[in-house]
Amino acid sequence: MKPFLKPRKLFSKLGYPPRPSSRSRVLQRLFGYLAAYPAQLTLIVLLVVVGTIANLVVAYLLGVGINNLSAPSPDLTGLLQTVTWMGIAGVVSWGLLLIEGLLLANISQKATFQLRRDLFEHIQTLSLNFFDRQPIGELMSRVTSDTELISQFFQTGLNQLFVNTARLVFTAIAMVLLDWRLAIAALTIGPLMLAFIGLLGRVSGPAFDQLQQELGELNGLMEETISGEKTVIAYRRQDAAVASFEEISLASREASVKAQFIALISRPVTLVLTNLDVALVALVGGLLVLQGATNVGVVATFLQYTRQLALPLTQLSNLFNALLAALSGAERVFQILDEQPAIVDAIDAAPMPMIQGRVEFRQVDFSYVQGRQILKHNTFAAQPGEKIGLCGPTGAGKSTIINLITRYYDIDAGEILIDGHNITTMQKDSLRQQIGIVLQEAFLFSDTVMNNLRYARLEATAADCIDAAKQANAHDFIERLPQGYDTMLTERGSNLSQGQRQLLTIARMMVQNPRMVILDEATSNVDTRTEQKIQEALDRLMQGRTSFVIAHRLSTIRNANRILVLKAGEIIETGSHDALMQRQGFYYDLYMSQFKGRVAAVV
């Protein structure tokens, strides 16, 4: 069975900004979030350095103790002092690194929180065209899964990175200071390990990128399918949904196996190289002891140092798995952070004065995608307090016009003026806060009824909200809810009927008390009785306000002052209902086709 949804290769088609030129730049940008805490970072570095040196002292004192024991006359007092200092150094090393780990965990949590906050805040600034091309599931994957990968690396991998890097550097320095000949033997394997780790990164990095991309598509499919589960069930497409899921899951699994396999190769290879390094040091050290060029204690210390040198390399190679996953996640997160809003205020933008309601379109052209024009040379004017109806076939441009009035998008050519002000010269927030919108699909949040009403105006009192609910014919049904205005709504208000949700959105707009009103077929998909209540509420809402009403059922705009008839992105007719009917043009045909359909249904 063919999948009901074709798996989408989103990553290359969404128009994100170019990828960073190197992983080092991504890592540098990621560490910038830690750099916001310079005092704590300085203390962490000092603790790591001192703790690492204390650990090296333990190995050095071990060699001193062995020399003492191998002497013809062992000094038991000196041996006891050596063991005591070994214990002290070990405790100091453990204690300092423990404190360092706690401090690093603290700032890592703060850095992760700030990254998530920056990401969420930035998403709130983006324009609607970003969400038009961005599947919600893919976006959620970046906000949750990718930031979680970064969080895991900050919490666990970062500490290992700091400590093992310090061990690597200071162990190499200690080796050179103690015996340069043995240091050469011990450090011979190091470049091979580093070369192997570098090769591993170049090979496995793209594999982890592919894995995160596939996981993003998988999340997108799951979000889309679960959100539309009623439709899936209604059309009996459960098997097709599973097939589509399996197709993307298989690609995700293959990418995961490839990424993990490459990463897992590192452990056995580094163990073999470590053992070879220890054997080489033991061989060279033994020869030097036989020649009298060094002593057994130095060789014993070097064997400890060699293992301490190999341990960071091994752990760093093992850390590559988490690091590459975090970098892949960070790359995807930074792509969103680099996205720029398409609609921004001009530098000299002024606050929108209190709207009186005159709206004017002058030769407006618009296209969502360059080269595919939606509106063509549209010109009209609405006077304060007028009710303007918009009608036409699906895709004619009705919703586009209201999206332009609120400046959700910028036009390609022409001008849009409100009360004589070009809206591109006004601050967009001060414009939008004076325009109320009721959409065909009512959206409510998972919160109380009261808080949903306050969403439009947070400073509104309970009395304001109750009064608005009464005006919207919503008060009676709210009072019948289990906790009245304190009743918790489920996601999207699904524990209410479609009509009840619509009445709440109208009440919410009344709380807002906008200067202009936009209605997108607000009375559709409800029964006749509820439609009457909604229409009464809308009439109160529109009274004295310039209103734009999108209508699929033309009977809802019969009393409009003027009706704009759109076809293929152009206003082809304009006038009152009676005038348009007398003209017997395109509007007449639309209206009569609906009227005949209703008559046929009754007959």
What would your notes on this structure say?
The structure is a single chain. Helix content is 62%, strand content 10%. The chain is of the alpha/beta class. It has three domains: 23-337, Up-down Bundle (ABC transporter transmembrane region fold), CATH 1.20.1560.10; 348-434 and 516-526 and 542-603, 3-Layer(aba) Sandwich (Rossmann fold), CATH 3.40.50.300; 441-513, Rossmann fold, CATH 3.40.50.300. α3 packs antiparallel against α5 (136-178) and α6 packs antiparallel against α10. The two termini are 43 Å apart.
Radius of gyration, in angstroms, nearest whole number: 35 Å
Along the chain, the helix and strand elements come as HHHHHHHHHHHEEEHEEHEHHHHEHEEEHH
- Spatial strand arrangement across the major sheet: 6-7-8-3-9-10
The biggest sheet amounts to: 6 strands, mixed
Terminal-residue CA separation: 43 Å
- Morphology call: elongated
CATH class (first level) name of the largest domain? Mainly Alpha
Helix coverage percent of residues? 55-70%
Briefly note the structural class of the backbone: alpha/beta
Task: Tally the structural domains.
Answer: 3
CATH architecture of the largest domain: Up-down Bundle
Number of helices: 20
CATH topology of the largest domain: ABC transporter transmembrane region fold
Average residue-wise pLDDT = 82
Residue fraction in strands: 5-15%
Question: What brief labels describe this structure?
Answer:
603 residues, alpha/beta, ABC transporter transmembrane region fold, Rossmann fold, 3 domains, 6-stranded mixed beta sheet, disordered C terminus
